[in-house]
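Notebook, bench 3.
Goal today: get a predicted structure for Lipid II flippase Amj from Desulfosporosinus orientis so we can plan the truncation constructs. The sequence was checked against the plasmid map this morning, with no discrepancies at the termini. Length recorded as 263 residues. Pasting the sequence as submitted so the record is complete.
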Amino acid sequence: MLSNPGELFLLTFIIHIIDTFAYSVRLSFIKSRQFALSTTLFNLFYLISLIAHTLQAPLIGGLMDHSLSQSLDPLPVIRQVLLVATLGTLCGIFLTPTFLKIFSNAVKELEVKASVPSIVIDALRWHSIRSFMGIITLPTKAMVHHLPYRKIPLNLLLLNVLVTGIYTIGVMSAYYATLLVDPQHRLAASASAGVLNTAANIIFMLFIDPKSSIITDQALRGSRPHADVKALVVILMSSKLIGTLMGQVLLIPIAKGIARLYM
């Protein structure tokens, strides 16, 4: 196996904790009513996630190359990576109240300073890091109890589970498929990761994001209660967590499905 898979684990953790935070930003939109500033600030987190994605794929490819050269099975490490994805999502869920406090303060600072680099530099100062420990807030039962979950369509939850499952294992299934095909088809099999991720993004953009945006916009206009958005965020986060677990189930079947295309 890789002599040090720690980098792959760290990047996967970063990706999934930021993806989990992304759901909660809807609550910040409603509370602050500063959609543009909130979006601008969160783009910084999205950039970090994008860089992690960019670095993750070559590391997974390196894992496969190492496995081929040493005649080893990379599946145990891949399973561990998927477990890290689940842990990153779970950590993101538990840190969401803390993230929202920090994010709300950062949006206010951005309005005053009008500079993202200034916000970043200030966040890295010792007094900011020390004050972070004082605002850590873990979720409580009261935060999620009695929310109107029945108002959120069930198909939204099911589709997000499917999308997250595919998204979580897209690259890994495609690269694992390279071990199941003849050498002349390995490059084509690895490129299938783009097809899987694109399919997941299409489902998200056509069926999940529009409905989620409608619920958020209606709450922003005051035509539906804020609690509906809270219920939406809880359901999206929960379905993402389930989706990362489903990735463990989908990993091999999807890899074998890709391999059959090139046999």
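The mean pLDDT is 89. The chain has one domain: 6-260.
Flagging this for group meeting.
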